[in-house]
Structure formats: C-alpha cells, structure tokens
Amino acid sequence: MAAYFAALRATDADREILRCRFAALEDIQRGSREAQHDALADASFHLAIADASHNVALIHVMRGLFDLLLSNICRSLERLYTREGSYEVIHTQHHAILQAVLARDPQVARQAAHVHLAYVETTLQDIDAEAGRQELSQRRLESLRALEANTAS
Question: In which band, very low, low, confident or very high, does the pLDDT at 149 lie, cut at 50, 70 and 90?
C-alpha cells in the first residue's frame, strides 16, 4: 500500500530522499555485510517510502513501530545473509520499487512491493525449514553414534 501511494503522491523532495536512501542500500551492495548497519539503511528506505505515501495513518504507524521494524529487519538479514545471492535479489527488488515510485506508476510499485515482501517471507520460511531438517539430521546422527558406542561397549 505504501509503495502504491508513494508512486501517486511523492513530491520531488520525497523522490530525492528515496534516491538518497537507496544510495545507502547501494553502499551495502558494494561493502561487507553487517546486519545491524544494513538493517538501518533498509528500514530507512522503507520508512522513506511510507513518508512519500503522505498517508498520515501509515506514517504514524511506521514511525511508531520503527524500532520493531529495525529489529525485525536485522534478524531477517542475519538469516538471509546465510543464503547465497539473497541480498542481491532483495537489492534488485528495492531498485524495482524505487523505479516504480520515481516513474509514478502505482500499479508497478504495488506489484514490486508485493514481490519483495513475498520473496523475503518465502526465503525466510525456506531457511527455517532447512535449519529444521539440519537439526533433525544432526539428532539422528547423534543417536546413531550413541547407539554404535553402546553396541561397541
């Protein structure tokens, strides 16, 4: 919703702020990954989109929950960074959102935001499922080793 309204309502100043926030994301793309630092740039980009929507209720909620958003993005990035190439995909998605807002195309902005959120959700679910499989396999291996040790005794 924020990206849709940002595409419709963003002022020239809003678009400049979005470019600046995206430039910080570009720096992450070129630098080393540090979830706490990167989360601030990511959350700030999302907040700038909310601000550009000029939806007072949405802005109020986003600003009120900024610390929670920041913490959630940080935890998500820590997990996403374990998956090769995931940040590059996210960066491309952020760029697509930015371009749609700058082009004042609300439908494309909404779709780009949806793709981004769905990707993050699905990828995090995949990472969690893989972690669960790893944990289960590790427990089976430990049980096998314990059984073999008891049999050898």
Answer: confident
Contacts 24+ apart (CB under 8 A), 15-21: 15/52, 15/101, 15/102, 17/48, 17/51, 17/52, 18/45, 18/48, 18/49, 18/52, 18/98, 18/101, 18/102, 19/98, 19/102, 21/45, 21/48
Q: Which residues contact 48 (CB under 8 A, 6 or more apart)?
A: 14, 17, 18, 21
Residues contacting residue 99 through CB under 8 Å, at least 6 positions apart: 112
SS (H, E, C) 23-42: HHHHHHHHCCCCHHHHHHHH
- pLDDT tens-digit readout, 32-54: 789 999 999 999 999 999 999 99
Write down the pTM of the prediction. 0.88
Q: Model confidence over 79-111: pLDDT tens digits?
A: 999 998 998 999 999 999 999 999 999 999 999
Rounded Cα distance between 85 and 88, Å, is: 5
31: left (phi over 0), alpha (psi -120 to 50) or beta: beta
The radius of gyration computed from the CA coordinates of the chain, to the nearest angstrom, equals: 20
